[in-house]
Amino acid sequence: MDNLNLKIITPQKVILAEMVESVSIPTYRGEITILPHHVNLFSLLVAGIVRIKSSSKEDHLAIGGGYLETDGEEVNVLVSKAYGQDEIDHDIIFRAIENAKNILKISKDKKERAEASMLLRHSIVSLKLLKKRRHRTTTV
């Protein structure tokens, strides 16, 4: 079976570099799935969950905004941040969500509200990632 060479890169480091069967990723127009031999594509990415399928497992990562480029053989994902379930603290996420909601309720400052809104969006993405099953093994 054909595979894709997937690279997920943040400004700090290469998060992932491996051969995969497919990758599903959130774009500004909705989620897309890249398979081997996909048409050339350059797309704007939004914060969300990336689903990575290989022959024996399915993994998930949360990403911040960024860009995707593919030629059907390689998929390069350049994002502001990327992290897995092991890097999320459940209690911190719930506190961040509550704090952001409180700021949005009471603050009149545009900058403070924008920051709280961004924190809320990223915290919700982290919460969704926590709800995904870890490293699911797929049966063929």
From TrEMBL:
CDD domains: F1-ATPase_delta
Keyword Membrane: yes
Keywords associated with the record: ATP synthesis, Cell membrane, CF(1), Hydrogen ion transport, Ion transport, Membrane, Transport
Compartments, record wording: Cell membrane; Endomembrane system
GO MF: ATP binding; proton-transporting ATP synthase activity, rotational mechanism
Cellular component, GO annotation: endomembrane system; plasma membrane; proton-transporting ATP synthase complex
Protein family per UniProt: Belongs to the ATPase epsilon chain family.
PANTHER family in alphabetical order: ATP SYNTHASE DELTA/EPSILON CHAIN (PTHR13822), ATP SYNTHASE EPSILON CHAIN, CHLOROPLASTIC (PTHR13822:SF10)
General function of this protein: Produces ATP from ADP in the presence of a proton gradient across the membrane.
Full protein name: ATP synthase epsilon chain
Provenance organism: Candidatus Roizmanbacteria bacterium RIFCSPLOWO2_01_FULL_35_13
Name of the gene encoding the protein in the UniProt record: atpC
